[in-house]
Every structure is written in structure tokens, then in C-alpha cells.
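[09:14] KT: can someone run the structure on this one? pasting the chain below
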Amino acid sequence: MNSSIPSEWQLSRRWPDPDTGEFVVDVELGKVPDELGVGWHLDAVRVCLSSQTRAVTTTVLRRVPVWTLVREVIETQVKPAHDRDRNNPPLAYTFPPEEVPAFLKRRDAHFEEVGTHLRINEAAERRTGRPRSVTPDFLREVAEVWSAARELREDPRAAVANRFGAAPSTAGRWITKARDAGLLAPSGRARKQEETKS
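[09:31] RB: done, C-alpha cells below
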């Protein structure tokens, strides 16, 4: 754990199962500039995966649901700490009495700023991390998730749906677009249709 970051902005737990997982995932949140560069949002700035029994491969790393873990930290740690600390008066011995009003003003401004970004994150949570448009980079990521799931003998469509918080039908459309872009091999059905035509 990083002592320079508030403890409520950090998570360390076993993965994939919180009780019996073979890996330990550590997540630290930080203030990340938004796309327009005029504000910020809370997001993962460090993710570390370790294990005493298994190799940490790129295939395993791709399966870590970073956005889900970020939401977990915000919901279970950041928001409760924000609500708890917002209205607590400062300890009497912490500041000389004449400095308390200035401290309260700074603290209220801080909590107002953080609170605004927590509300923004609620909208992002409903979006569940999906991109607004299907870009070539996004299709490459879909192809990577699909390939990793296939390699692990898991349902690729379910893996894509879980990774991006989408319905299976939406994940299926993204997979089709990735295939059309040449990022995935044609499906078995498409190969059979091609063979029939020739």
C-alpha cells in the first residue's frame, strides 16, 4: 500500500475469487485528467497483479476487470469515507482556534470538488466503461479479450460482454465488427459459407 495515497483510494484483494483466488490484485486510484483536459476523474493509476502459485501472463492481465475494481473502490471505500468525513469537525487540538475557519473553508471546498466527481462517476458507472463509439482501438481490445478467452477455453462472447459491461448481443455485434475489420479469423459458420460458395 502507498502511504502517500489516501487508504480509501487503494484496494488489495485476492482475484478472481476474493476468498480463494490464486492472484492478489492491488489497485490505486488517482486524479486522472479528463479527455478535454479541463477537469479530472477518479480512475486506476496503478494496477499490480502477483501470485505465489501461478505465472502472471498477458493473458491473465487482460482478464483483470480494472473498471469493476475501480467501481468497487469508489462505492465501498471512497464514497463512505467522503460522507463520513465531510461533516466531522476538526479535532480541537489540531488547529489553533483562529485557523479553524480557514481550515473548514478549504476542507469544504475539497469535499465539494471530490463530491462533484463522485456524482460524475455515477454516470460513468451506468455507462460501465463502454466507449461511446466503436473505434479501431476499441475493436482491437475486443479482439484481444476474445482471443484471451478462447485461449483459456472460456466463452469469448461472454468474456467481451463482462469486460465492457455490455449485453451479450452487443458484445456479439462488436465481435462481428472486429472480424469484419480483419482482427479475428472468420467464424466457423462464415468459413462454411465461403467453402459452399467456392
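[09:33] KT: thanks! The beta strands are 10-15, 23-33, 40-51.
[09:34] RB: yep, looked fine to me
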